[in-house]
Amino acid sequence: MLGVCYYPEHWNEERWADDARRMRELGISFVRIGEFAWSRLEPSRGNFDFGWLDRAMDVLAAAGLKIVLGTPTATPPKWLVDEYPDILPYDEQGKVRGFGSRRHYTFSSDTWWRESARIVEIIAKRYGEHPGLVGWQTDNEYGCHDTTLSWGAEDLKSFKRWLRLRYQSTEQLNEAWGSVFWSMDVNSFDEVFLPNLTVTEANPATRLDFWRFHSDQVAAYDKMQCDILRKHSPDRWITHNFMGFVSDFDHFKVADNLDLASWDSYPIGFVEKFPFTEDERNRWAETSHPDIASYHHDLYRGVGKGRFWVMEQQPGPVNWAPWNPVPKPGMVRLWTWEALAHGAEVVSYFRWRQAPFAQEQMHAGLNMSGLDELSPGGMEAQQVGEELKAIAALPESGKAQVALVFDYQSYWTTMIQPQGKDFRYEELCFRWYEALRRLGLDIDFVRPGNSLEGYALIVVPCMTEVDVATEAALRKATGQILVGARTGSRDRNFVIPHNLPPGPLGERTGNRVIQVSTLRPGLSDAVAGEVSGAAIRWRETVQTTSNVLAHFANGDPALTENDNMLYLACWADEALLSDVIALVAQKAGLDTIALPDYIRIRRRGNLTFAFNYGTMAWSIPAGVTLVLGRDVLEPQAVSVWTA
Ligand code: GAL
Predict the structure, then answer these.
(1) pTM > 0.70: yes or no
(2) Which of 51, 85, 127, 482 is deepest in the core (most CB within 10 A)?
(3) Does domain 599-642 have CATH number 2.170.130.30?
């Protein structure tokens, strides 16, 4: 169940066999290679040098390692960029993003598609049947370094093509966008413009379409690669390594092409990336926040229709966050077990050995910089390798009790029109997730429109456009449902629904949102009733025909209930959110445990795993049979038991 990312091209060939042997000794079975190697595979157009990769694959396979080969499209070589500068991406200020790092391409360039198809086909043909090859990774981290959206001439060309297909006529486009508003009408698709460099805010409907267009391109580009790989390598699976807190494209759509999802887990790096308070950042600096990794495990298990890997696991300090602390002793092991607890099929560390050169020289590996000597993180991986030998196989990760409906488009719409500066979709989902996890509940992330049957509790933190399929899935669901503010607040054209928000859920909730207020940091509105706390950031004025479970200070409804659907008309502070989540869990008939905020548990089949992110010990429930660890869960420790 362990893997590692390896770059044979970084090391002298004489070292490969020994590296491979030591990987096996560590309990590693999978090795991912090749994803940045284009300049060494095709040093100039049409001149290929496959010798080294042939030999590397043979050496790794001979040691018994199973190989995952990356397509090298995240790093187009210099000669290609010089030959075809039209593949380069442009930032929102209209400036070109040049050669010299990675991901320097736009999904809009026809040249880039042709060149990608060419290199993927050549590699798929050459290695598609290699006995050591078990699977493929397409590209590397779509969207990394803000590369989903691009704002150049190629993008405008492709955007026009996409709009033509979507709207057929400019009358329909003008109608959908509300172009009449500031004389923004266009008379032909040639007149269409990019929604950047405008004097003030561009039309939100245009921006949403621009985002959708790029998202569709990522999925189509990935499919192009997958189709070629499947043709020449029909018996191997395909994945892509997604990222943490990157929501610029619809990952569910990309995963439609894949056999399984994977993601790159850098829990400590993400502490800086996520909008935590400074106190939280300091508290979790060396362990990460207890929900960061698991939130993504659950998201990507959903994205991968039940199947996911951690393709890159942080093995020590990283190099790319504003501050990069060493993880506390035990954390590399803990994160590995936690991923497995959430259903990961494989946890693969990034990287085998720290590179003494180039951009990531400050990034740890399982081996110290340039050496054949395990780093502290490497020793923890070794420990997991030993422990895994003692546990024959892990049971299937079954359906969770709770469904969280996660909607990429809601991230885009609330970014485009936040209304309150701190209305952040990902943060909202994370906080709801955190409140559920503190009660010891297991969570599945569900794609909008998918069935919600069989879940005791369904939460929709925010879904700005409730499409027909999701409305139907919510109607059929028999579990307890909690819907958050802003849900149903726009139609597909970014228009406020004629019956006012929550639009398609108006009848179901019995509510009409007649106005919305956003609150500056420091301002709040008290909420009291069956739950209590305060609204911060966002607060709606709701007219309702339903039961009111809690009110704002002036008597307006804050939490309403109609049949199995509750509607929360604000962004809840921590106290209110934990009350609301506890209330719906109880209405759903779920067994909950009030865990200390540094302890998390997760079930996988008949096994229960517990993780300690804190500084104090915790006693696991009495009367269970331990499979791993002890009944007193020390800081940074893991225990596993059967009931
Ligand atoms: C990932 C990326 C790797 C490496 C790593 C460093 O985002 O896929 O290639 O850069 O970060 O943490």
Answers:
(1) yes
(2) 482
(3) no
